[in-house]
Each structure stands twice: as C-alpha cells, then as structure tokens.
Amino acid sequence: MKARIKKGDMVQVIAGDDKGKSGKVLQVLSGGGRALVEGLNFVKKHMRKTQDNPQGGVFEKEAPIHLSNLKKAE
Fold first, then answer.
1. What are the φ/ψ torsions at residue 68 (nearest 5 degrees)?
2. Which residue has better confidence, 74 or 68?
3. d(CA 67, CA 47)
4. Residue 47 phi, psi dihedral angles, 5° rounding
C-alpha cells in the first residue's frame, strides 16, 4: 500500500474515537501502514519505578493510527 500521507502533513481522522479531530503527522510507520499523529489517539502506559524513572505511575502517550482512518486536511 503506497502511503500518500507523509511526515509533517496535517491530517483529519475519519473513523474511530477521535473522528473529526485533526493534527500533524509526527511519524509514518511503513511496515504496519500506520501513522503517529500529534495530540490524537492517546493510550495509558503504566510505568514501573526504575532508576531512570523513580516516580513511576501512569503516563499518556500517542499511539499509531491506521492510514485508512486518516485523510489530508484541507
């Protein structure tokens, strides 16, 4: 599948929980046909306490969205 969406493009979500929202593409993952969009599709990541992260806790981060659920914003 050829990716018509590239890094830096403004895209709009056409399906899913974030339908209607738009954001800038941070990264395109070619292997899975997915893209990471700034400020969309947040998931909660539970982090264990470590020396690098002494606080631990629950963090939110962006998860990739399938390219079929995105379109270029006008």
1. -70, -15
2. 68
3. 28
4. -115, 130
